[in-house]
């Protein structure tokens, strides 16, 4: 194994009573498998595959210590021995692969979606419809006992340790900050009283589990909310947590109600490692850096720069279970990189669906989707080199089929090539890179600048033909649609046609938002997603930590180089159908760029004066230089019917199958499901 490229990453970490094989932590993710019937058996397969991939230490999704701590009124806390056997499915599977695993103990407090929410005081979180009741003094004591009981049951279930979730705005955080904790008893008031709750949990847990059990404490090093902890308070708590018996301190960044994006693709790689670095030397136990560390190169850089003793990666292990092993084997180019889109992971969790991954539909479905060697290899043609075609060709060839990929343009990537030029979506290039490497590795014949024809395909001797020709922008029909001012989104993003100093965008779906982001960005300055300091300035994070929570007095975004109008026909706020965990980021970003958002628009005509519209019954003329159409897509498919008539076995996937509400998540999943069975 070639470890020389990552000497810090693959150095063992001695914890005294046990040693971790490397410095990689698979961070906590709630997958919803924890809450469904038979989910623990599926979780076992999920975690075992990552352990087999040589992750140093795994942390599970959050497990509540009591019913009041549940995130949702479903699922089960670990509060009785009746639940232990479920967890043993997981620990047995991980240990069979020579892995180590800790269970996260998470009490959501006022973040729960339940009428039984509790917190430090009577309060209501802005992200939950349910108010929370302040715990009585007796209930605080009982909650601490519930944490201890949960840790003991985790030990009984053969976990190697626990992570006590003390960040992200959950119950422990709610006790620590005075904006939530307004108690006047021994658990409130002065800071020393407010931190007594986490300290008692850690201290009593250590007493209960003994010395040879990992206790990770997830410390909120950066609250990113008004009234959050000061840096001096964070350091003080870290030192007390160490004294109380923690083995490791993990970094928590931001509360869920923060106005600062902390994990979206817009966040620079390793963007918050500076916070953990600031803590280095303040305590003597290992520190873990986290958030947007998605490659072995970035992980090695974080460690080499002295930012932490260990790095946490969570979603990257949805994208690729073998991330660590591939890095160890000197094959980082074969890693399927997490692009931090949240579409199939967090967005699924928050809509009560089992998590997965846009670029790896097998994630959390390891018992259902597998790419076994083909028993009877076939000769396949894949038409179209966008995300669906790339996934189909790569997986089919991995299974042993003889695959030829036809792409009419000069490059692979399809719609993802347009995504890569959007500020904050540069990561999408990694998916194109990954599939390109896989095509070469598995011997796919790639024919660029080659438009497939019915005659050529019919005479090619193919057993099956997969059509993944994608989509093309949908045209609108109103007076002036052919005016020189009018462009479609592909002409702007792909063909780079010039756009004037004022522009109206018709269509406020995902593509409309992307085009608005693109056109409100000054390309004389690098995207803030590529520069940590510029990102923090734009979103209002004070890297000097002069105020509690580390928020600056206000964000300082770069101004838009042009006036942008984002128009839609329907009522209501813009972007309501965007991803649940990322839509607010897109709306906030455009608001900072002062994009004008107009709803209830009827498009009358385009002429030399500009775009004539009616807004909620009132006539207006937008004197814009250009109008960009982002009004949906239509299939780019002219082959299927003729090929079927010629007797060919034809399969349609992605936009070629259905352009309505197309996204890469659906396209890649359809591709993988299809070729897993061919």
Overview features:
678 residues, alpha/beta, TIM Barrel, Rossmann fold, FAD/NAD(P)-binding domain, 3 domains, 8-stranded parallel barrel, 22 helices, 30% helix, globular, OxRdtase_FMN_N, oxidoreductase activity, iron-sulfur, iron, FAD/NAD-binding_dom
How would you describe this structure to a colleague?
The structure is a single chain. By secondary structure, this protein is of the alpha/beta class. The chain has 3 domains: 13-349, TIM Barrel; 379-472 and 634-677, NAD(P)-binding Rossmann-like Domain (Rossmann fold, 3-Layer(aba) Sandwich); 475-522 and 559-631, FAD/NAD(P)-binding domain (3-Layer(bba) Sandwich). 30% of the residues lie in helices and 16% in strands. It has 22 helices and 27 strands. The strands form 7 sheets. An 8-stranded parallel β-barrel has the order 3-4-5-8-9-10-11-12, surrounded by 7 helices. Strands 15-14-13-16-27 form a 5-stranded parallel beta sheet. Strand 9, helix 7 and strand 10 form a beta-alpha-beta unit. It is globular. InterPro entries: Aldolase_TIM, FAD/NAD-bd_sf, FAD/NAD-binding_dom, NADH:flavin_oxidoreductase, OxRdtase_FMN_N. Residues 9-334 form the NADH:flavin oxidoreductase/NADH oxidase N-terminal domain. GO terms for molecular function: FMN binding; iron-sulfur cluster binding; metal ion binding; oxidoreductase activity. Residues 379-643 form the FAD/NAD(P)-binding domain. This is 2,4-dienoyl-CoA reductase (NADPH2).
Number of helices: 22
**Any idea what the CATH architecture of the largest domain is?**
Alpha-Beta Barrel
CATH C-level label of the largest domain = Alpha Beta
Strand numbers in spatial order across the main sheet: 3-4-5-8-9-10-11-12
The name CATH uses for the topology of the largest domain is TIM Barrel
Structural class: alpha/beta
The total number of structural domains is 3
Radius of gyration: 26 Å
Helix content: 25-40%
Q: How many β-strand stretches?
A: 27
pLDDT below 50 for ≥5 consecutive residues: which ranges?
none
How much strand? 15-25%
| Tertiary shape | globular
Task: Describe the largest sheet.
Answer: 8 strands, parallel, barrel
Mean pLDDT value: 96
How far apart, in Å, are the first and last alpha carbons? Answer: 34 Å
């Amino acid at each position: 194994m070639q470890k020389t490229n990552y000497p810090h990453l693959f150095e063992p970490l001695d914890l005294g009573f046990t040693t971790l094989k490397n410095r990689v932590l698979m961070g906590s993710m709630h997958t919803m498998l924890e809450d469904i019937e038979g989910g623990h058996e599926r979780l076992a397969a999920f975690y075992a595959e990552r352990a087999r991939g040589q992750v140093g230490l795994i942390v599970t999704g959050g497990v509540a210590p009591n019913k009041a701590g549940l995130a949702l009124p479903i699922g089960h806390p670990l509060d009785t021995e009746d639940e232990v056997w479920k967890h043993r499915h997981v620990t047995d599977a991980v240990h069979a692969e020579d892995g180590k695993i800790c269970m996260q103990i998470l009490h959501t407090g006022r973040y729960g979606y339940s009428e039984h929410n509790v917190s430090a005081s009577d309060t209501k979180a802005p992200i939950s419809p349910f108010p929370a009741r302040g715990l009585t003094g007796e209930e605080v004591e009982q909650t601490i006992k519930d944490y201890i009981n949960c840790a003991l049951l985790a030990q009984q279930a053969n976990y190697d340790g626990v992570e006590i979730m003390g960040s992200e705005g959950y119950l422990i955080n709610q006790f620590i900050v005075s904006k939530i904790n307004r108690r006047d008893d021994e658990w409130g008031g002065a800071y020393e009283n407010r931190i007594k709750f986490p300290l008692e949990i850690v201290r009593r847990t250590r007493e209960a589990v003994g010395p040879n059990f990992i206790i990770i404490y997830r410390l909120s090093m950066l609250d990113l909310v008004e009234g959050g902890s000061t840096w001096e308070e964070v350091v003080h708590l870290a030192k007390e947590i160490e004294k109380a018996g923690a083995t490791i301190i993990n970094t928590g960044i931001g509360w869920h109600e923060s106005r600062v994006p902390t994990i979206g693709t817009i966040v620079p790689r390793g963007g918050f490692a500076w916070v953990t670095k600031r803590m280095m030397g303040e305590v003597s136990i290992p520190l873990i850096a986290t958030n947007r560390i998605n490659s072995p190169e970035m992980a090695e850089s974080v460690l080499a720069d002295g930012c932490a003793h260990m790095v946490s990666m969570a979603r990257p292990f949805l994208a690729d279970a073998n991330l660590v092993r591939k890095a160890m084997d000197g094959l980082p180019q074969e890693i399927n990189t997490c692009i931090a889109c949240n579409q199939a992971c967090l967005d699924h969790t928050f809509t009560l669906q089992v998590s997965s991954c846009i670029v790896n539909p097998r994630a959390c479905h390891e018992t259902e989707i597998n790419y076994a060697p083909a028993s009877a290899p076939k000769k396949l043609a894949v038409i179209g080199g966008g995300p669906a075609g790339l996934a189909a060709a790569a997986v089919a060839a991995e299974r042993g089929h003889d695959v030829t990929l036809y792409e009419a343009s000069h490059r692979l990537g399809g719609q993802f090539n347009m995504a890569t030029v959007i500020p904050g979506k540069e990561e999408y290039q990694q998916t194109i890179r990954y599939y390109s490497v896989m095509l070469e590795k598995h011997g796919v014949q790639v024919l660029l600048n080659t438009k497939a024809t019915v005659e050529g395909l019919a005479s090619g001797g193919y057993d099956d033909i997969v059509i993944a020709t994608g989509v093309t922008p949908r045209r609108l029909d109103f007076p002036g649609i052919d005016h020189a001012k009018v462009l479609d989104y592909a002409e702007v993003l792909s063909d780079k046609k010039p756009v004037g100093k004022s522009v109206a965008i018709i269509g406020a779906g995902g593509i409309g938002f992307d085009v608005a982001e693109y056109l409100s960005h000054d390309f004389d300055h690098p995207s803030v997603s590529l520069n940590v300091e510029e990102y923090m300035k734009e979103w209002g994070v004070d890297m000097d930590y002069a105020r509690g929570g580390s928020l600056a007095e206000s964000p300082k975004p770069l101004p838009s180089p042009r006036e942008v109008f984002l128009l839609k026909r329907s009522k209501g706020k813009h972007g309501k159908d965007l991803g649940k965990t990322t839509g607010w980021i897109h709306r906030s970003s455009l608001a900072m760029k002062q994009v004008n958002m107009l709803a209830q628009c009827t498009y009358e005509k385009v002429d030399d004066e500009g775009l004539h519209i009616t807004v909620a019954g009132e006539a207006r003329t937008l004197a814009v230089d250009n109008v960009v159409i982002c009004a949906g897509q239509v299939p780019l498919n002219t082959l299927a019917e003729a090929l079927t008539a010629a007797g060919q076995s034809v399969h349609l996937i992605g936009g070629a199958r259905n352009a309505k509400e197309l996204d890469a998540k659906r396209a890649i999943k359809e591709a993988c499901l299809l070729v897993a069975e061919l």
